[in-house]
Amino acid sequence: MNTFSTVCPICDEQREFTCADDFWHCRDGMSSAGCELWGCVTRERALAAALFSLVDRKAIRSLAIHEPAPVMRGLSLWLSQNCPGYQRSGYFPDAPFGDIIEGIRNEDLERQTFADRSFDIVLHLDVMEHLFQPFQALSEIHRTLKPGGLCIFTAPTEPQRFESEQVAFMENGELRVVGEPEYHGNPQRPEDGAIVTWRYGFDLPLLIQRNTGFDVETRRYQSRGSAAMGYMNDVYVLRKER
C-alpha cells in the first residue's frame, strides 16, 4: 500500500492519497475523507488536471459551464460553489425537457433545448458509455458551445479494445442488449442504474472526428503530481473552432 501527499487538482489543497500500487488500478480511488468537497475519484482529478491546464482557475469563475449528470462531489461540487455560470442537467424522460426538476435542468443530451452558443465549456464524467447516440449528443454539445469552446469528458476506454462497439440499442421503444447487460450508477435514478450502451476502444477520437465538428486531443495521466494514475482514465479534450 502506497501513501503520498500532493496538491489535489480540484480543491488546490495538499491532500494525502493512498493506492494499492504505483499504477493505481482503481479509477474510483478516493482522496482523503476530510476533503470539504466530499472527496473525489481518480477520473475526476484527471479531468480537473486537463481542465485547469487549459483554463485559468480564476478565469473559469466567469464562464458559462454545462455539466450533464454530475455526482455532486469533487470537481462538480467545486464548480457549483465557485462558478455562478455553472449549470447541471439530468435526464428525466417522463417530464418536459427544459424544465427544472429537483433543481436540475431536464435535458436529453441527444436533443438539447439549450440555445446555440450558450456555453464556454461543457464537461461530463462517464456519460458517453450510457448514450444510445453519443455522437449525436456531441454534435448537440458542439452546437451549444461558443466559438473556441471546450468539451472535456471521461469515458472508460478498454485497454485491449481498438474498435468501439455499441452493445445496447433502443428499437421501436424496446431495449435490445448484446451479451450480458451491464449497469453503472445513475445519479438521477440510483434505484435503476444506467445501462452501458457502448464499449469504447482506441478508435473513439477518430469516431468523434468523423461524426462531429470537433477536433480531438486525448490525455492519459500517470501523475503523482495530480493524483491521477492508472488505466481507463483517458480524458478527451474537444475544441470548437473559433
User: Which structural class do the helices and strands define?
Assistant: alpha/beta
Q: What is the CATH domain class?
A: Alpha Beta
Give the C-alpha Rg: 17 Å
- Assembly classification: single chain
Give the helix proportion (percent range): 10-25%
Shape: globular
Number of strands: 16
Largest β sheet strand count, sense and barrel closure: 8 strands, mixed
Number of helices: 4
Q: Can you identify the CATH superfamily?
A: Vaccinia Virus protein VP39
Number of domains: 1
* Intertermini distance: 47 Å
- Stretches where pLDDT is under 50 for at least 5 consecutive residues are none
At the fold tier of CATH, the topology name is Rossmann fold
Strand content: 25-35%
Strand order of the largest sheet: 5-6-4-3-7-8-16-15
Order of helices and strands: EEHEHEEEEHEEEEEEEHEE
Kindly report the average pLDDT value. Answer: 90
Give me the CATH architecture, please: 3-Layer(aba) Sandwich
What's the arrangement of secondary structure elements?
Elements: E1 2-7, E2 14-19, H1 42-54, E3 65-68, H2 74-82, E4 86-90, E5 100-101, E6 104-106, E7 119-125, H3 134-144, E8 145-154, E9 165-166, E10 168-171, E11 174-177, E12 183-184, E13 194-195, E14 198-199, H4 204-211, E15 215-219, E16 235-239
Parallel strand pairs: 3-4, 3-7, 4-6, 7-8
Antiparallel strand pairs: 1-2, 5-6, 8-16, 9-14, 10-11, 12-13, 15-16
Overview of the molecule:
The chain is α/β, with parallel strands linked by helices. It has a single domain (2-158, 201-239), classed as Rossmann fold (3-Layer(aba) Sandwich), CATH 3.40.50. The protein is 17% helix and 29% strand. The protein has helices at residues 42-54, 74-82, 134-144, 204-211; strands at residues 2-7, 14-19, 65-68, 86-90, 100-101, 104-106, 119-125, 145-154, 165-166, 168-171, 174-177, 183-184, 194-195, 198-199, 215-219, 235-239. The longest helix is centred in the N-terminal third of the chain and has 13 residues, at 42-54. The radius of gyration is 17 Å and the shape is globular. 39% of the residues are buried. The model has no long low-confidence stretch (mean pLDDT 90).
